[in-house]
Amino acid sequence: MKEIDYVKLYAEKLKNDNSLFKQQKMLIESQLKASSSLFRNMFKGEDYKKKAREYLKGIGLL
Amino acid sequence: MGEGYTVDKNVIVINRELTDLDLFVKDFLEILKKYSDYLIVSGFVSISTGRTRGTEDVDILVPVMEKEKFAQFFAELQETGFWCYQGDNSDSIYGYVKDLISIRFARINEMYPNMEFIPIDASKKAKYFEFTHPQKMKVQDFEFKIPPIEFEILYKEIVLAGEKDIKDAKHLRTIFSEILKEEKFKEYEPIIRMELE
């Protein structure tokens, strides 16, 4: 089964089973927590905005 | 166990709890709505309807504001704990807005999630069309505006067309299969194709 078929299958199940949203909430929130922790560690002890902008320039987002 | 969504008086109601991502968007919108209309587009539409993938930014279309109004909006965001990637001075940031260049806002001491604030005007025909034809969506007490679902699907399939976008479109086509209207796909497709010209 291809990944896109899983997307379809999951959406079909979700139509009638909103308990699946609980897993999705966990996924979203764990990703946000991991990202927050990563950047806090990267910019620890520094001016967060200044370091963040330097980082963003470095990856071409600014 | 219950239905994933219901439709109540033309509002699509998603039957789930709010996530931290929703709360971030809700806080931003509570400020923005005092100054401007808006439309949330792209990944957040799919994710808020159950697509299981991560995201770092939430795209929001906002018509170009007058400079003074933008300054007030920008100041209120700063007072309420947001920062702008592009800078801290509203005068210089307004240059991006009037040139229709996106700017991004996140919470202080955070990089993600961020709101990608996409300024638009009537020259952006497809974006302006979706902006003027909003669909309401609701999760708990959080109500927000998105494009018509058929428009969002076609935009992802025709304009964005990356792997992630095709999967998002498949998700939307599947979960909303009972309420999608073929005549709307036909109406929207030529409008969306103008974006490619």
What is the molecular shape of chain A? elongated
Q: Determine the mean pLDDT of chain B.
A: 96
Record the strand order, biggest sheet of chain B. Answer: 3-4-7-6-5
The CATH class assignment of chain B is Alpha Beta
Task: Give the number of domains of chain B.
Answer: 1
Summarize the structure in words.
The complex is a heterodimer of chains A (62) and B (197). Chain A is mainly alpha-helical and 62 residues long. Chain A has three helices and no strands. Chain B has a five-stranded mixed sheet. A four-stranded mixed sheet of chain B has the order 1-2-8-9. In chain B, α6 runs antiparallel to α7 (163-175) and α6 (149-160) crosses α8 (182-193). In chain B, 39% of the residues are buried. Chain B has helices at 20-32, 43-48, 67-79, 90-98, 125-131, 149-160, 163-175, 182-193, and strands spanning 5-8, 11-14, 39-41, 57-63, 82-84, 103-107, 114-120, 135-139, 142-146. The longest helix of chain B has 13 residues, at 20-32. The interface between A and B is large, with 36 and 36 residues.
Structure keywords:
heterodimer, A: 62 residues, mainly alpha, elongated, B: 197 residues, alpha+beta, Beta Polymerase, domain 2, five-stranded mixed β-sheet, four-stranded mixed β-sheet, 9 strands, globular
Layout of helices and strands:
The complex is a heterodimer of chains A (62) and B (197).
Chain A: H1 3-16, H2 21-42, H3 48-58
Chain B: E1 5-8, E2 11-14, H1 20-32, E3 39-41, H2 43-48, E4 57-63, H3 67-79, E5 82-84, H4 90-98, E6 103-107, E7 114-120, H5 125-131, E8 135-139, E9 142-146, H6 149-160, H7 163-175, H8 182-193
Parallel strand pairs in B: 2-8, 4-7
Antiparallel strand pairs in B: 1-2, 3-4, 5-6, 6-7, 8-9
Helix pairs in contact in B: 6-7, 6-8
Summarize this entry quickly.
The complex is a heterodimer of chains A (62) and B (197). By secondary structure, chain A is mostly helical. In chain A, 76% of the residues lie in helices and 0% in strands.
